[in-house]
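Write out this protein's structure.
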Amino acid sequence: MFNIGICDDEKGTCAELENMLYAFGENQGITLEVSIWYTGENLCAFLKNETILDILFLDIELISTDGIKVGRFIRDELENLETVIIYISSKSNYAMSLFRIQPFDFLIKPLNQNMIDDVMERSVRIYEKKNHFFEYYSKAQGGHSKVCFKDILYFYSQNKKINIVLNNEEIQFNGKLKEIANIVPHNFCMIHQSYLVNLDFVAECSYEWMKMQNGALLNISQPYRKTVRNQMIQREWEKIK
């Protein structure tokens, strides 16, 4: 079951979106539970104490605590990188303001069923991939092990070994980084022949380097810079429809 939130001060939009979401779930055979908030304050109060939402449709132009402030609260104060945030708005000029919040998409009102079906199909697919496990063999750990993709900050290769960097530990095993790059979810990106990065954990990015949330500063090598730049642009703020 997917827990989905809607936060919009237009009750009509909330009702229409709720109906479209349930129609999507029925057509796809997916169980959804949709919750609605009409203010950013009420949503933030809920998120402080309750279960993390899987997907959140968030209006930018909320009257008091706007959607950008809510997004920053989710990402920065709650340190929640898991919830898929899909912004909705009647305007299309918020792209750069949303960069640090890492929204999954940006939908322009009026919404319709095709728009919701498309973004939900992609959201569900990415959610499922991110919650899959990476399996590896480590003699030091006594055989085959696995780690959830969503917990991996990045992979790096060194001295013919692969290292998995997590928040509080590193895991080493034998492998080839390019082979791993073929099986990771789309939120991973090769930035160097030795680095495969989870973009969900990027704190800052320039044309030449990435700073990860654990403080690591990783070089983006020349052959990968154009691809990395395009992927970051597409991911963060050039998804306006």
